[in-house]
Design a protein that fits this description.
By secondary structure, this protein is mainly α. It has helices at 12-28, 35-57, 68-88, 90-97, 104-109, 114-119, 131-155, 160-182, 196-211, 219-223; strands at residues 31-32, 100-103, 122-123, 128-129. A two-stranded parallel ribbon has the order 1-2. Strands 3-4 form a two-stranded antiparallel ribbon. Strand 3 and strand 4 (128-129) form a beta hairpin. Helix 1 packs antiparallel against helix 2 (35-57), helix 3 (68-88) packs antiparallel against helix 7 and helix 8 packs antiparallel against helix 9 (196-211). The longest helix has 25 residues, at 131-155. The protein starts with 11 loop residues before the first helix and ends with a helix.
Length: 227
């Protein structure tokens, strides 16, 4: 069941303009002082796409509750995906584009300056990434994982035909975060990726989650909600 635009919680035109503004941000902005600033960027370039996809994917006809949780989950997934891209591409963005898509105030809290990023955050004494960077990245990954968890709450409310591809994207993007950790948080000289065999191996899990949403312990509670 696709959703007509009239049921959108926000104006379709506004969301489209927000996405275009996100593209423009890359022309004029290369640093982000706070997470709030970065979140605005993530919303504009990825969250908007998730919101615009919702009327295409549709909601489970059996769900009679409010649509806001579904849209919030879509927004969380779009934001989580973009944050994952950012964490994966730190070195590439800095070295080839002179862009830092990380909150500068949070970097400062971990004692990390821009010159440290340019140097690559490698500790010659340990042979690993600097401990400050490891702690910083662990914090950022935890934030992205929480957004993925927020997104999970709404995937099972999507139309049955849409659930499998969305679950697949969610699971695969989470595995990129796992790959960053497996690389010792080195996102300067190594690119975190999910090998093809693991992608294919994840599809049955995504299918089972999509086909049997009742396995979600909160599913019955969500389906019982009425508008």
């Amino acid at each position: 069941m696709s959703l007509p635009l009239v049921v959108w919680p926000a104006c379709f035109v506004v969301v489209c303009r927000d996405m275009i503004d996100g593209m423009r941000m890359d022309l004029v902005k290369s640093r982000y002082e706070t997470y709030d600033e970065l979140y605005e960027y993530c919303y504009r370039v990825a969250g908007t796409v998730a919101l615009m996809s919702m009327p295409v994917m549709g909601v489970d006809p059996a769900y009679k509750g409010p649509l806001e949780p579904v849209y919030r989950a879509a927004l969380a997934l779009g934001t989580a995906n973009q944050l994952t891209n950012i964490l994966r591409d730190v070195g590439e963005d800095l070295q080839t584009r002179n862009r830092i898509y990380l909150p500068l105030d949070e970097l400062a809290q971990y004692g990390i300056a821009e010159k440290d990023l340019v140097a690559g955050m490698y500790s010659p004494t340990t042979g690993r990434m600097d401990e400050r960077w490891q702690r910083f990245m662990s914090f950022q990954i935890d934030r992205a994982q929480q957004l993925f968890a927020d997104a999970e709450a709404g995937v099972d409310l999507l139309d049955q035909k849409a659930r499998w591809p969305v679950w697949s994207a969610l699971i695969l993007y989470r595995q990129i975060l796992d790959a960053i950790e497996a690389n010792g948080y080195d996102n300067f000289t190594q690119r975190a990726y999910v090998p093809k065999w693991r992608k294919f191996a994840s599809l049955p899990l995504a299918f089972s989650k999509a086909a049997m949403p009742q396995l979600n312990p909160n599913y019955k509670k969500m389906m019982a909600v009425r508008r």
